Amino acid sequence: MKRNLCLALIVLAATLGGCAANKPGNDPSLIGSWKGVRSENGKCQFLSWKNNFKPDGTFNITFFRDAQQTQPIQTEHGIWKAANGKNELRTAGVPLPDTYTYTLIDADTVHYVSVAKDPSGDCQEDYEFTEHRIRG
Questions:
Q1: Among candidates 87, 129, 85, 130, which has minimal Cα distance to 109?
Q2: Distances from the Cα of 82 to the Cα of 34, 49, 64, 69, 120, angstroms
Q3: Handedness of CA 104, 72, 80, 44 (dihedral sign)
Q4: What pTM, to 2 d.p., does this model score?
Q5: What burial letters (b/e) apply to 71-99, b meaning 16+ CB within 10 Å?
Q6: What is the rounded distance in angstroms from the CA atom of residue 94 to the CA atom of residue 96?
Q7: Torsion on CA atoms 28, 111, 71, 94, rounded to nearest 10
Q8: Cα Rg for the chain, rounded, in angstroms?
C-alpha cells in the first residue's frame, strides 16, 4: 500500500511539474529596468517612474514628482503578467490590477495604452505613455 501511494505521489508530482514547465511565461522582451513619464500636458497628473520587471514575475516601481527623478513619491511592488500585447500589473495592497496594451517599438522602447485600472488609482482617465529601457 505504501509503495502504491509513493508511486502515485511521484506520478502526480511529475505530471504537475510537466504542466508548470509548459506554462507560458511573461514576454521576455519586457524583462529588465525601464523609465517613463506621464505627459505634463496630458489628462493625468505628471509623474515619472523607474520600474523593474523581473523574470520571476515580480516588479517594483518608484514614482517621482520630477522628470529628473530626484524627488521620489513612493515605491510599489507586486506581480506582473505580459503576453500577446497585454500587460497586467497587480500591485501589493491594491484590489484590482492595472491593465495595459503594449507595442514594442524596438528592443529598448515600448508604448503602453491604459485600458483598465483600480478605482483607487491616481488617474482614472485612459492614457498612453512610452517607456525606455535603462541600460547599464
A1: 130
A2: 15, 19, 24, 26, 22
A3: negative
A4: 0.73
A5: eeeeebebbbbbeeeebebbbeebeebbb
A6: 6
A7: -70
A8: 19
Q: Which amino acid is at 103?
A: T
Distance CA 41, CA 89 (A): 25
Domains assigned to the chain: 26-133 (2.40.128.20)
On the CB side of 35, how many CA atoms lie within 13 Å of its CA?
8
Taking the C-alpha atoms of residue 53 and residue 42, their distance in angstroms, rounded to an integer, is 25
What is the full per-residue pLDDT of the chain (136 aa) written as tens digits? Answer: 555 544 444 444 444 444 444 455 799 999 999 999 877 776 677 889 999 999 999 999 999 999 999 999 999 999 999 999 999 999 999 888 989 999 999 999 999 998 866 555 555 456 788 999 998 7
